[in-house]
Amino acid sequence: MSDSPTVRQISVFIANEAGRVSEVTGLLGDAGVNIRGFSVSDTIDYGILRLVVDKPDEALATLRGAGFTVREDPVICIDLPDRPGGLAGVLRIVAEAGVNIEYVYSLVATFVVINVADVDQAVQMLGDRPIRLVSQDDIARPPS
């Protein structure tokens, strides 16, 4: 495992057809991969299923083996305070640090994924801020 304050996100490119998301999630479930968070975006012809899972290597191998086009990217995952205004407060900290967010989605519990243009720079910029960055090891732990 890694102690990096980033998480491995898997993007799966799928045809915008009924059953495609179900197919991907079924393959991962059959392979023993637990999906900890996901996001789906689409156009008329295709979709992108973004996933954060407990076993990214197994997920990549399974999906590639099934013929899917997949990409892996590092993303930042932040543990939100579980209270009203928690998300707003964290996003304010991120903005004040000068980090531009490209998209955000949530995971189990109070984790959110933030994709940025330069992950390493953003990690450095957020390093001394009052937020906790989540590692891949944190994602792999079962929920309490």
CATH third-level topology of the largest domain: VC0802-like
Runs in which pLDDT lies below 50 for 5 or more consecutive residues are: none
Give me the secondary-structure category.
alpha+beta
The proportion of strand residues reads 25-35%
CATH superfamily label of the largest domain: VC0802-like
The CATH architecture term of the largest domain is: 2-Layer Sandwich
Backbone shape: globular
CA distance, first residue to last residue: 20 Å
Fraction of residues in helices? Answer: 25-40%
Mean pLDDT: 87
> What is the string of helix and strand elements?
EHEEHEHEEHEH
| Strand count | 7
The largest pleated sheet is described as: 7 strands, antiparallel
Q: Which CATH class of the largest domain? A: Alpha Beta
Output the radius of gyration.
Answer: 15 Å
What can you see in these coordinates?
This protein is of the alpha+beta class and 144 residues long. 31% of the residues lie in helices and 33% in strands. The protein has two domains: 8-73, VC0802-like (2-Layer Sandwich); 75-140, VC0802-like (2-Layer Sandwich), CATH 3.30.2130. Strand 2 (35-42) and strand 3 form a beta hairpin.
